[in-house]
Amino acid sequence: MRSKDRTMRLIARLDVKGENLIKGVHLEGLRVIGDPQEFARRYYEQGADELIYMDIVASLYGRSNLVDIVRRSARDIFVPLTVGGGVRSIDDVTNLLRAGADKVAINTAAVRRPALISEVARKFGSQCMVLSIEAKRQNEDNWEVYTDCGREKSGLNVIEWVKRGMELGAGEIMLTSIDQEGTRKGFDLDLLRAVSQFAKVPVIVSGGYGEPQHLRDAIENGADAVAFADALHYSRTNLSELRTVASEMHVKIRMA
Description:
Order of helices and strands: EEEHEHHEHEHHEEEHEHEHEHHE
Structural class: alpha/beta
Oligomer: single chain
CATH topology: TIM Barrel
């Protein structure tokens, strides 16, 4: 378990479909929120440490619209951008980095061809390669990796996949609980603890934030970064308030 005396990052996550910012529950029932550019700019101005763009239907339809979105964002947003969804090849990564992304998050393509993790890490550095994991609880202490926006079983155990991903060169883990995503009921802390116990790279926890105690829980249970979506999109909190919660726990916050 990681010490509380570490640098915590507060990240705004923006799931997109086509040209729209969307939000769902359990990665389903997607609702249009608005223009992702406007929301991204708002979160940057509020002091987000990073932004994550995820094209959550790209793996289903075999394409991604994120290059144009990233290119526009990079013009006036000056914090690290992580981009995922439909990233299948070194060429895809190259195009996103040229457009202004700093890191890529890969789930489905990495499960289908794990060597892609090593290829990205070797060419661009491990810090660029974020292993995105959509996890669904199977029983008390077992979670399965899902792909294609939480629609397809992979047969992979989350903990074993985390270990393998790190061996292949992943420099960060983005851990999304399908069970908790969009529920506002808190993160899957059992999952977070299980992954953090083995992870030797930073862990971003995503899916379930609803109230300040949930951020405290994430910090206590090993998260190095927390991604927020629903709570920010619907203005139930803002990044300044979240920064205050973390600082009250004497956690160092990376200043944007």
